[in-house]
Design brief:
The protein has 64 residues and is α+β, with helices and mostly antiparallel strands. It is built from three helices and three strands, in the order H-E-E-H-E-H. The protein has a three-stranded antiparallel sheet. Strand 1 and strand 2 form a beta hairpin. The longest helix is centred in the C-terminal third of the chain and has 11 residues. The model has no long low-confidence stretch (mean pLDDT 95).
């Protein structure tokens, strides 16, 4: 049987921790920083754990 391929868009957007949690980047952190406060910019730099309902789908796309 052929092997399943990892979904390319998913592998660019998510990562899995050692404990199996799926992490994502925050939105609104790419540009237009001039009007955003430093506090907000720092908060947006942190990765977030995705919801368990979405994690199941993402793991399937990653082949985990």
């Amino acid at each position: 049987m052929p092997k399943n391929k990892t979904h390319s868009g998913t592998k660019k957007r998510f990562r899995v921790t050692g404990t199996g949690k799926v992490m994502r980047e925050q939105a609104y952190a790419r540009h237009l920083h001039e009007h955003k406060s430093s506090r907000r910019t720092r908060r947006l730099a942190q990765d977030q754990v995705i919801a368990p309902a979405n994690a199941k789908v993402v793991k399937k796309l990653l082949g985990i």
